[in-house]
Amino acid sequence: MLTRETVCGTRHAISSGHYLATAAGFAVLQAGGNAVDAGCAAGLALGVLHPDLVSVAGVAPIILRTADGLVETIAGVGPWPAATDAHYFQREHAGRMPAGVLRTVVPAAPCAWITALQRHGTMGFSEMAEHAIRFAAEGFSVYPLLAENLANHAAEYRRWPQNAAIYLPGDRPPAAGELFLQADLAATLRFMVDEERAARARGADRVAGLQAARDAFYRGDIARRMVDFLQSEGGWLSREDLACFRCPVLPAVGVEWRGQQVFTGGAWCQGPTLLQALRMAERAGLAELPHNSVDYLHLLAEVLKIAFADREHHLGDPDFVDVPLAAMLSDEHVAARVAAIDPAGAHPGMMAARLGSGRGVPAATTALDPPVEAGTSYVSVVDRWGGAFSSAPSDASWSSPVVPGLGFVPSNRGSQNRTDPTHPAGIAPGKRLRLTPMPALALGADGSVMPFGSPGNDVQPQALLQVLMNLFVHGLSPQAAVEAPRIASYAFPGTSAPHDHFPSRLAVESRIPEATRDALAAMGHDIRPWPERTWLAGCVELVRQDARGLLSAAADPRRPAAAIAI
Predict the structure, then answer these.
(1) Tens digit of each residue's pLDDT (9 = 90 or more) over 264-295
(2) CA-to-CA distance for 255 and 272, rounded, in angstroms?
(3) Phi, psi (5° rounding) for residue 503?
(4) Taking residues 472-496, what's their average pLDDT?
(5) Residues forming a β-bridge with 451
C-alpha cells in the first residue's frame, strides 16, 4: 500500500527533499518564475532546512532543460585549492583524510545557483533567497530525521564550539518539534542580497545584480572571513582560489534507453555509472524477468557491481584524467561486460578492468552492516513552459568547522577524493573530486520530460536505475515506482572516506520477502537486510510531464519530502 498518491497537475510541479523547500519553489512558480528560478530557490532553502546534510556553501550539481529544448549541466563542485599538497595525507596520515579544514575544496553551490539564474532565470538573488533567509532567521520545526542525525553526530559537532552552538543549542541535540534557528547564516545571505540591491541601485541590470551577489561571496567580505579562518586552522583555501572559481557549464552525457534519452553529468560525477548500468541491464534482458524476483535482483546486482567496478577503474575529473567514457558506454564494452555475468552465481569481488590497465582489486572491509548514507538532498521542477530543473545539493556539517559568524561549513567534499594521487579520483591541486550527487533528466521520444534524482552517496545510481525500471518497464505510477522496495550493492570501494569495500555485499530492504533474500544468499550474495527504520539511502524525488502535458510528481516518504503540482 502506498503512503501517498502521485500528485498531478497541468501547469507546473515541484518535488524536493523538504516540504518547506517545495513550498518555496512552488511560491516562485506561482509568482511567474520558471523552473530555474524555482529550483534555485528550493535548492538554496534545502541548505537551511537540511543543515546536517546540505551546506549553503557546499556542492550543487545541476542539469536542466530550457523551454526551447537546450539541455546543459552546471558542474557545481569546486576543485582542490592551488596550494594543496597532493601527498600530504599519505605522508602524514597513512592515507586517511582526517576531519577538519584540510578536506575543504572551493565552495561551488552559490556559484551554481547564480550561474543558472544568470543564464536561464528571470529573478534576482533577493527573490530567490527570500525563503531561505526566512527559514534561517525565523526558524523551522526540527523533524525526526534531523533530530536523529544531530543526536548521532553530537560528539563530532562538539569538536568545534561554533558548530555546537548552532547544531546543539543549549549543549544538547534539539528534539523533534523544537525550533531550529541559524541567525548567522541568515545574516550571510542578507549580505549577499544587500550587495545585489546596492548594485541595482547604481543602475545594474538583473544579471549584473546577480554578479554582485556572487562577488559578495567569492571576492568580498564573506570570502575574506572564510579564508582568514580556514588558513588560521591550517587550511589550503586562498582568496585567489575563490576569486578565480567559475562553475563550468558543460554538455550533458546521455544514452538512448526504451524511448527515453537519459542524461546525467559527465565523468566529474558518478552519473555515467547510471548510464552504463541502464545499457547493461537492457543488454542482459533484465526487463524480461519478473519484477523483484530472485533472478531479477541477482542480475540487477551483478550489473551494478560491474558498472561500479568501471567507475572505480576509470572515472575522475576529465580535465585531469583520460576517461574512456565513449568506450564505457559502447555496444562492444556493454556486451563484453554482460557476457561475464554468471546467471547462477554472484561474482565474488570487484571485476577487473577491460579498458586499459584499471585499478587493482582493493582489500575487503569487515563490518556487520552496510553504511546508511543519509547525506545530500534533491529538487526537481517542471514549469508551465516545459522547462525542467534537476539538482542535488549536498555537504554535511559535522566533519569540518563552521566559519565563525558566517554560519556555514565551506565545502568539505574533498573526503570523496582518494588520497592516492595516481587514482582516477585521486587528489591534486585544482582537480575536482568525483562527485556522488548526480541529478538526472529523461526526455521521451513522445515529448515527455522528467527531472529525477536522489540522495544516498553510492546508492544514488542504484536507486535511480530501479525507479526507471519500475516506471518504464513495469508500468508503476511515479509514486509507486519511488516507494517500491530496492536493493543496493556495496561490492566496490565506497566513494567517501574511508572508501570501505564489501565484496559480494548486497543490502536488501526488509519488504523483500525472506525467501527471496535466502535464495540470493544461496547464489553467493552476502545479504544484509535494511530494516524499515534505515530507509534513508536512495530516497528518490521526480516530476514528469507526459506527452499530453499532464504533470505528475512523486516524493519518497522516508524523508520530510513533498511534491506539489497544480
Answers:
(1) 999 999 999 999 999 999 999 999 999 999 99
(2) 9
(3) -55, 130
(4) 93
(5) 441
Alpha helices, DSSP H, located in 411-513? 460-472, 478-483
323-to-243, 308, 327, 424 alpha-carbon distances in Å:
29, 14, 9, 9
Q: Residue 260 — pLDDT band, cuts 50, 70, 90?
A: very high
Q: Cβ(395)–Cβ(43) under 8 Å?
A: no
- pTM for this one? 0.96
For residues 489 and 159, what is the distance between their CA atoms, to the nearest angstrom? 33
Name 554's Cβ contacts closer than 8 Å, sequence gap at least 6. 6, 7, 15, 477, 478, 479, 481, 482, 540, 541, 542, 563
First vs last C-alpha separation in the chain: 25
d(CA 177, CA 203): 45
pLDDT of residue 351: 85
Of 460, 486, 448, nearest in space to 274 by CA: 460
Locate cell 524480461: which residue?
288
* 359 Ramachandran zone, left/alpha/beta (phi>0; psi -120 to 50): beta
Range scoring the smallest mean pLDDT among 76-85, 192-201, 497-506: 497-506
Q: Which residues of 149-164 are buried (b: 16+ CB within 10 A; e: fewer)?
A: bbeebbebbeebebbb
E strands, 228-293, are 249-250, 253-257, 260-264
Here the cell at position 202 is 547604481
User: Helices (DSSP H) in 285-431: which residue ranges?
Assistant: 294-314, 325-328, 331-339
Residues 311, 316, 322, 327, CA torsion sign: positive
The length of the chain is: 566
Angle, alpha carbons 17-412-181 (nearest 5°): 50
**CA–CA distance, 388 with 15 (Å, rounded to integer):** 12
* CA 295/CA 292 separation, integer angstroms: 8
Do 269 and 390 meet the contact criterion of CB atoms below 8 Å apart?
no
C-alpha cell at 447: 515529448
The H-or-E segment that residue 509 falls in is strand 505-509
Task: Output the CA torsion sign for 504, 509, 512, 513.
Answer: positive
- pLDDT band, very low/low/confident/very high, at 360 (cuts 50, 70, 90): low
Q: What is the pLDDT of the chain when averaged over all its residues?
A: 94
How distant is the alpha carbon of residue 37 from its chain centre? 19
Half-sphere exposure of 465 (CA within 13 A, CB side): 34
Q: CB of 429 within 8 A of CB of 84? A: yes
Q: Is 356 exposed, middle or buried (0-12, 13-18, 19+ CB in 10 A)?
A: exposed
